[in-house]
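Same chain as my last thread, 197 residues:
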Amino acid sequence: MENPTDEQLVLKVQAGDKAAFEQLYWRYKDRVIGVVYNIVRNHQDTLEISQEVFVRIYKNIDKYQPGTNLFTWIYRIAHNLAIDKYRHKKTAKEIEFDNDYQKNFSRPEDVLPPSLGINPERAFERVELREKMTAALNELTENQRAIITLREIEGLSYDEIAVALDIPIGTVMSRIHYARLKLQNSLRGYLDCKDVK
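reply #2:
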């Protein structure tokens, strides 16, 4: 089977097929890293927690309910683990935001190589916008950041978000509304003076 569905892979993993788990890993690795990074905001912690997420997925694969969205189930594991680690670190007063991760992409030439004939001013504006977006996301609460990530980046429906976060759909709608307002307010000065296309 060249491109098995998530459920087919899960059934294989439940039967002990390690190659099927590797396929699941590669299918969801980047999304898990994105979810975790949006919570902990530290590159090294993100990699460590993401590894632990996949260990938990493997150990708990029998708890997955066929017929439900696999990413929603994976998201809950990643979100809960990242929140636990983040709160533990914060309580221990060891929290630090990893600026090196952001610095790796702080110059226009890091975003788009000059050999592509890209306008350097436009490339710089994209880097600047990413920095403004990162700052705006950092101003959101954990709950708001999680919900914006699920809706705007992962493209989950309101119902799927409600299941992933184990909250009523009305709470989903409210959090999305207030998170969007906060982002708009944070970015208003920047976006008003830019030619956004």
